[in-house]
Amino acid sequence: MNKPNSKTSSMVKFPKLLITGGNGLVGTAIKKLGIPDAVFVARADADLRDFKLTKALFEKIKPTHVIHLAAHVGGVGGNSLHPGEYFRDNILINTNVLEAARLTGVKKLVSMLSTCIFPDPAIFPLKAEDLHKGQPHPSNFGYAYAKRMLEVQTNAYRKEWGCDYITLVGTNIYGPNDNFSLENGHVVSSLVHKCFLAKKNKTDLEVWGSGKPLREFVLSDDIAKLTVWAIESYDEAEPLMLSSGIETSIKELVLLVAEKMKFTGRVIFDTKKTDGQLRKPSDTTKFLKYLPEFKFTPVEDGVEKTVNWFVENYPNVRK
Fold this sequence. Notes:
Layout (H helix, E strand, L loop, with lengths): L5 H5 L6 E4 L4 H7 L7 E3 L9 H11 L3 E4 L7 H6 L1 H21 L4 E7 L26 H21 L3 E6 L2 E2 L12 H15 L3 E4 L5 E2 L2 E2 H14 L6 E3 L5 E2 H11 L6 E4 L14 H6 L8 H15 L6
Parallel strand pairs: 1-2, 1-3, 3-4, 4-5, 5-10, 6-9, 7-12
Antiparallel strand pairs: 8-11
């Protein structure tokens, strides 16, 4: 079985690999692997909500393998205000991509899910088998249900047409090329941006909550290697959880970002604001069965890489 590491991943060859969402967080990390003849498509290349355009894109590129990362994503605010829009757009994107792949003879397709699709309250540790055992959190139910339907569609296609389609679940992915929006970004990216501005403006760094919640952060570079490994080596119908199983508290993360940003001002945890879920641990049993020796990037190194990239590319970052 191939092992995902920087050396072997850069040597991977597919007859024709297509990556949707190619300009996003994971897409740009895959691009750095240097896969020969890989085609990265973004929103400007085709509106995947339109089936005719999606099918035309597949007929033009003629991919044999597909990594499907494209999605309409946003923060809590966007999801709360536009649940219908998020559901509609993601249902259309996923339905069209998988159907176009089937009609054009794609041999293998892997799609990325999200931990937000799990039931709320969740059963811990998060297991793929519990995915549909309850409703997702109401704050993002439109997006979450659309992503759940991607898992359903994947298995429906496997059963009726024998399509070699699989799904993965990355936990709290972060890294360079993320969306660093203060309101809609992931926790690491929005915190990096907030700390940068606090340093620039010589203000306090104010953070919501006590800092006690724990999360499993995984660098996008690691997810990229694992996704390429999966499209070669993983064939089960059940989603595979991609997580180190190592939990980091939000307080540890905040202090780490401040250290890497060389921020010397005051850090204030606003305990009047909600903490959210205390933990969202993942079951890594199946992952370790396949890849017991895989080494995830330590959070310290990943945060440093993310901070340095943000500082070097500001203000030309997604925000």
